[in-house]
Amino acid sequence: MTRATQKRISLAVFVAMVVFWQVLSVLFPAEIVDGVPMIPGWQVLATTTFLSMADYWGGGFGIISVAQGGERTTAAAALSIISHSWDTLVRLYVGLALGAICGATLGLAITWSAWTRRIIELPVEVLRTLPLLAMVPLFQLWFGTYFAGKIAFIGYGVAVLFVAGVINAVRNVPPIYLENARTLGASKMEIYKTVILPAIFPELRATIMLSLGLAWATVIGAEYLGAQSGLGYILVYAQSYGFVDRMFFVALLFVLYASISFALFNMVSTKMLRWAPRASGRESLA
Questions:
Q1: Domain ranges of the chain
Q2: What are phi and psi of 130, to 5 degrees?
């Protein structure tokens, strides 16, 4: 099967999903509250639901918020989506970077020597077993509703995943690389800098993709920690009043942003890993 055929099939499946949702909205027109359908069709999402996003605009740029007596306008709705999306993206990527740095450092420390492994591995393993969603109320009590608490929650979720990924990647570095470096007189620090770190990146690619997906999931949990802005805040507000269409609209935004971030990372990492040998299993499975 050619690549063009695969793309056509994927596009056809996507169109079928869109049509299926629209058919469901026609077949089940029930409303959870007056004017809010249980299954909002695309025409509802593109008009009424989009304009309702203006309710979350705090005012500025010459546009008065609805809370201050302003009207629902397209500009207010667009600015509301942009501002809340920006807050969510900042939390997500700062938390992701923090978790990746902490997780990679701990993972490399565990592989450094037997002593560091004895000291660090057990506490990290204990932290890994704690259910992430169960930590939401604890983080809320520990860090309050501040920015630091949300970042810490996302970073914690990413770090525990990154630790396991780094340890596994280091263990899979071909021993011949390390032996050649030692033969050339490289110190342990030089081996880590010049051999291990470049060698583990191809295998870490999957870990980074998983961490990115986890970060998108945890940022919603983080914004449940009393956030006053962000897409998670809109989600909480919409849930309180039964605005299913707004919840679905926000979910679509999450899907859009996550898809863009995955595509960008995939494009950048593919260029960075041109030197790495490609697995032959893909052709055989296809």
A1: 1-39, 85-273
A2: -70, 130
The CATH number of 85-273, from 1.10.3720.10, 3.40.30.10, 3.30.300.30, 3.40.80.10, is: 1.10.3720.10
Amino acid identity at 140? Q
31 forms bridges with which residues in the sheet? 37
The Cα–Cα gap between 102 and 110 comes to 12
3-state per-residue secondary structure call for 198-247:
HHHHHHHHHHHHHHHHHHHHHHHHHHCCCCCCCHHHHHHHHHHHCCHHHH
For residue 78, give the nearest of 249, 280, 279, 262 by alpha carbon.
Answer: 249
pLDDT digits (tens, 9 = 90+) for 66-124: 888 888 889 999 999 999 999 999 999 999 999 999 999 999 999 988 888 888 888 88
**CA–CA distance, 251 with 220 (Å, rounded to integer):** 10
- SS3 of 35, please? coil
Q: Is the pTM value of this prediction over 0.70?
A: yes
Q: Are 233 and 58 in contact (CB under 8 A)?
A: no
Q: Which residue has the tokens 């470049």?
A: 198
* Block residue for tokens 């920015």: 147
* Gap between the Cα atoms of 231 and 239, Å rounded: 12
